[in-house]
């Protein structure tokens, strides 16, 4: 049995892509479990730094035998045993190699919609640029 943990910025469409693929795999594979940990965009980097230190990933090779730096991970996906997979792209490779499955969700509008729903789960409401709205009304 494998247990995958996904964390990322709640408003990130790539995080939404990994999330949807994970739900599909959990539903269709008997030994696949997930934990989704969406983070507020303003809190993600500090959360990621904390997780990195707790798991000792600063000097540990990820699943693809590369060192991953927290500054370069917009999403952080790992196996509950502590093995770092990496970001959504790394996760897609892992899923393809391990389970022969691919993500078929490529529609940017759908991914954006999923990201907005995820944002609500952590109470994140994107700032609205009132100048842009005013220009649209006046124009």
Structure described in brief:
This protein is of the alpha+beta class and 139 residues long.
End-to-end CA span? 58 Å
**Protein structure class:** alpha+beta
Strand adjacency order, main sheet: 2-1-3-4
Query: Biggest sheet: strands, sense, closure?
Result: 4 strands, mixed
Per DSSP, what share of the residues sits in E-state strands of 2 or more residues? 15-25%
Number of strands: 4
CA-based gyration radius: 17 Å
The helix tally amounts to 5
Q: What's the overall average pLDDT, rounded?
A: 83
Q: What coarse outline follows from CA principal-axis ratios?
A: globular
Low-confidence stretches: 128-139
Order of helices and strands: EHEHEEHHH
Descriptive report:
The chain has helices spanning 13-28, 44-55, 88-99, 108-121, 130-138; strands spanning 2-9, 32-39, 75-79, 84-86. By secondary structure, the chain is an alpha+beta fold. The chain has a 4-stranded mixed beta sheet with strand order 2-1-3-4. A hairpin with a 4-residue loop joins β3 (75-79) and β4. α1 (13-28) packs across α4 (108-121). The longest helix is centred in the N-terminal third of the chain and has 16 residues, at 13-28. It is globular and about 35 Å long. The chain starts with a strand and ends with a helix.
């Amino acid at each position: 049995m494998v247990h995958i943990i996904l964390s990322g910025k709640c408003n990130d469409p790539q995080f939404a892509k990994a999330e949807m693929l994970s739900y599909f795999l959990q539903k269709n594979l008997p030994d696949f479990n997930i934990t989704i940990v969406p983070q507020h965009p303003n809190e993600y980097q500090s959360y990621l730094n904390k997780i990195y230190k707790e798991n000792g990933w600063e000097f540990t090779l990820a699943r693809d035998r590369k060192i991953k730096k927290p500054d370069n991970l917009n999403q952080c996906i790992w196996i509950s045993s502590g093995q770092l997979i990496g970001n959504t792209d790394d996760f897609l490779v892992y899923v393809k190699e391990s389970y022969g499955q691919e993500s078929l969700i490529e529609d940017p509008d759908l991914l954006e919609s999923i990201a907005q729903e995820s944002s609500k789960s952590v109470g994140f409401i994107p700032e609205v640029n009132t100048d842009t709205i005013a220009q649209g009304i006046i124009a």
